[in-house]
């Protein structure tokens, strides 16, 4: 929690400095790409447990992400409780049935066909952990008064990317899930009105027979996602 007396600029020496020769940087970048290329969105999970410490450290990594004015406008709720996971699944599937029954529109449903998704979400119960990502519209000083958060969607998106990478680095698979609307998560998880749920991440180990849609492995080539202005 921020304290008003902390709101002043003070410069400190860069605490962690990494210096690599060019060839080592090239190798490190290529190795990271190769590692992240092995990340897959998985819908079939094993019920194998995952230590709480793994999830905590992955969320610690997410918490190091940059954010607007360093306000860190995020909160993560990590859930292993079977009863809560079951209630989340029931509520999410209720929203998903409306989505697939026509609320999404024909174009969106056609776009999802190659992914093979539907209203049933058993992974929300089977995956050992669900991580609900909340975006904080505003924060509070230590005296209880509010302050505005800035660039909230961008900041939370970056932190979520860190979290996905950390989970993959720890040997886990994950699946992003965004039922709409998600307000039921505030009540279920007792989060304040200042927070907006933006995503459910199911994470754990893949089932022995886990499959992924072939189309999901089609990625745009570099020349379609990069423009160099040298």
From TrEMBL:
> Does the keyword Oxidoreductase feature in the UniProt annotation?
yes
- Keywords, in A-Z order: Flavoprotein, FMN, Oxidoreductase
User: A Gene Ontology MF term for this entry?
Assistant: oxidoreductase activity
Q: Does the keyword Transmembrane apply?
A: no
List where the protein spans the membrane.
none
Question: CDD domains under this entry?
Answer: iodotyrosine_dehalogenase
Q: Which residues form the Nitroreductase domain?
A: 37-205
What's the protein called, per UniProt? Iodotyrosine dehalogenase 1
């Amino acid at each position: 929690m921020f304290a008003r007396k902390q709101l002043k600029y003070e410069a400190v020496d860069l605490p962690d400095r990494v210096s690599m020769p060019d060839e080592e940087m090239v190798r490190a970048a290529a190795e990271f790409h190769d590692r992240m290329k092995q990340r897959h969105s998985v819908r079939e999970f094993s019920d194998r447990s995952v230590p709480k410490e793994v999830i905590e450290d992955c969320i610690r990594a997410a918490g190091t992400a940059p954010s607007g004015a360093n306000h860190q406008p995020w909160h993560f709720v990590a859930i292993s409780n079977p009863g809560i996971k079951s209630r989340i699944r029931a509520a999410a599937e209720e929203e998903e049935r409306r989505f697939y029954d026509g609320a999404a529109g024909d174009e969106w449903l056609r776009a999802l066909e190659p992914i093979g998704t539907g209203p049933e979400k058993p992974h929300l119960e089977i995956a050992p952990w669900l991580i609900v990502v909340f975006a904080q519209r505003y924060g509070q000083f230590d005296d209880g008064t509010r302050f505005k958060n800035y660039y909230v969607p961008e900041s939370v998106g970056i932190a979520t990317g860190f979290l996905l990478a950390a989970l993959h680095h720890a040997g886990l698979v994950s699946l992003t899930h965004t039922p709409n609307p998600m307000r039921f998560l505030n009540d279920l998880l007792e989060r304040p009105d200042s927070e907006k749920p933006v995503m459910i991440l199911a994470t754990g180990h893949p089932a022995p027979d886990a499959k992924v849609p072939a189309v999901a492995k089609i990625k745009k080539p570099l020349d379609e996602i990069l423009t160099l202005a040298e």
